[in-house]
Amino acid sequence: MNAFTIKDLENLTGIKAHTIRIWEQRYTFLKPQRTDTNIRYYSNDELKMILNIALLNKYGFKISHIDRMSADEIKQKTFSLVNSQAQQERVINELIQYMIDLNLDQFEVVLDNYISIKGVERTIINIIFPFMERIGILWITNHINPAQEHLVTNIIRQKLIVGIESANPHIRLERTAMLFLPEGEHHELGLLFMYFLLKTRGIQVLYLGASVPMADLQYIVQLKKPNAIYTHLSSVASNFNLEKFLNAVGARFSGTNVVISGQIIKTYKKALPDNVHVKKTLQEVLETITVL
Fold first, then answer.
1. Which of 7, 38, 45, 147 is the most exposed place for a label (fewest CB within 10 A)?
2. CATH node for 169-289
């Protein structure tokens, strides 16, 4: 069983920690346990419950009304939501729940069903990317088992690769982007997502993959002279120095635009080299593609 903190619940549901504490005091659906040092922690079932409760509350159901429902009723009500954004969030919640339970068959069924209806790109943008954003903090804090992470990300990785291989752009631009992850970074999903988006828009991609030494990257950049360099930082090694990395890529590739996105970069506040551009949201990443 996983043990989730109140901060994990806040990150995964969007419900502030102080609101969750109020709900615990007033209602019966959450009964956290406490550590020897009196810190709250929550079980798999409680996380799954609050995901559904938060979704219903966001789309019009009063908490006092939800509190009188059974767990099955709460789950059924999430399927009755007709708002398209609510339906997307329900699918993301399902993926989180199946990940927690290691129900890999159902995890893949949910993805395949959405792909069959909406296509690969909309599945990536509407479902996979938001899913990655929401669980990314759990990877960083080690609040999910590594086995859960590896099994789930490998399923998503397969879907992304199929999408990349089947992408057939109508136009081909005389633009090249080089994609890589720095040494110690092995989470490729964000990078593969960008690969798919770039390829579908006719931009040539040089994909170096995970854990690329800076010297190797510099050699390829000098040889191929890409128009842009892109990396996505999800969960780097403990000895990774973000400021040093940003300054290094800025100096070594001063004549090339370097674009960086990912969970780790979101809170970075220091000045950036002129050629290094941080993208903190999916919308900013998508806008970047149009100007590469």
1. 38
2. 3.40.50.280
